[in-house]
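Escalation from tier 1.

The customer reports that the assembly of two entities below gives different C-alpha cells on two consecutive runs. Tier 1 could not reproduce it. I'm attaching the input and our single run for tier 2 to review.
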Amino acid sequence: MKIVPEKLRFLLPAAAFAVIIVATLLLFDPDPGLMRGINTISECGENSLKYHILPGKVEMNWQIATLSGIFIGAILYSIFSGKFKLETTFSGNALDFGGIWRSALCGIAGGFLVMCAVMISGNSIWGHIGNAVQLSSGSWIFLASTLFAGMATLLLFAGNGDPGEKAGRKTNKRKTSTGSRK
Amino acid sequence: MTSISLVFFPGAALSYNWQIVAGAVSGILIGALLVKCSFCDRSRIRNLLKLADRDLVATLAGMLFFGLILRWAACRYNILPENCGVSAGRALNSIIGGILCGVGLYLGGFAPLSALAGVGNGKLTAVWAIVGMLIALPVLQWCDEKVSFNHNWNKALPVGKVSWDFFDSGNPALYAVVALAIVLLTLALRRNSN
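Tier 1 run:
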C-alpha cells in the first residue's frame, strides 16, 4: 500500500532537501554553499600541477566532508536501488552528438559555463537555493535568470521540436516505408 | 511557547569533529536524494528547464517553499536569527551568472553537486563536466588579474536585516519573483490544457 499518492511523490524529497538546508544553516554557516570546499580542492590540484608535486593533504572542513558524502551517498543509493548504470555518452539526438568526443565537448563546455556562473554570482546553485530560503534577493534573481536562460536556449536550439527528434522521426518513416514495401 | 536559544553562526552549535561527521552525513543524504530525484540526469534537467518534467519542477519548488516555511518557523521560535548573515548579492552578477548557468545546464546538464552525484551514479559524462569546472577556475583567475573594472556600476542589492525587507515595494527581486511565478503558472496551465 502506497503511503504517499503518486501525484504527491515529490513531497518527501522536497521536504528532505528543505530540512537539510535549514539544518545546514543551524549547524554550520549562514551560507550553505560549498564554494570554499570546491575552491580548496581546486587549489590543491592547481598547486600540484604548477609545482609538479603530488597533491598534498587537504585541510578537512565540513564542506569537504559534505562533498565527499555526496559522492559516497550517490554510489550507495545507486548500488542499493539498482539505479547504477555506466553511461559514457549522452543519449543522442542531432544536437546532442552521440559520440564520446562530442559528449566530452558538450560536458566540458557546460561545466565551464556553470563554474563561470558560480564564480561570477559568488555561490553554487545549492548555495543560491540556501540563500533564497533566507530571502536573499541576489539568489532569487540568479535562480530566475537561470530558468529563463535555460528556457531561451532550449527554444533557440530546439525551436518547434528537437532537431534530433525530427531526425528520429524521419528515420522511423524511412524504416516504416521500407517495411511496408516488403 | 518556550523559545530554544542556541548560539550559532558560524558552526558554534557543533565542535569541529562533529561538524565533519554532520557534514558527511548531510552529504550522503544529499547525494542519495540527488540520484533518487534524477537531478543528475541530463535529459531530465533539460525537461526541467522546459518545465516539462512535473516531478522535478515540483521538487524544486517544494524545496524552496518548505525551506522558506521552515526558516520562518526557526526564526519565529528563535532557533535561527532573523539577521541572515548572507552577503549582499549584486544584480548584474546574479543576472549574468544566471544566464551563463542556464546555458551551461542546457549544454552539460550538470551543476557542481549533481556532477559529483552523477559520477557516483555511473554517469561518466559527469566527469567531463567536472573537468570543465576545474578548467574554469584558473581561467577566471587569470581573467581577473588581466581585466579590472574601475567604475562602480554594480551596486549591492539590499540584504534585509529583517526577512520582511524582501517584501518591500522598492525591492526589484520581489517583482522578479512575482513575474516568474506568473510565467510559471501560465506555462503550467497551458501545458495542462494542451
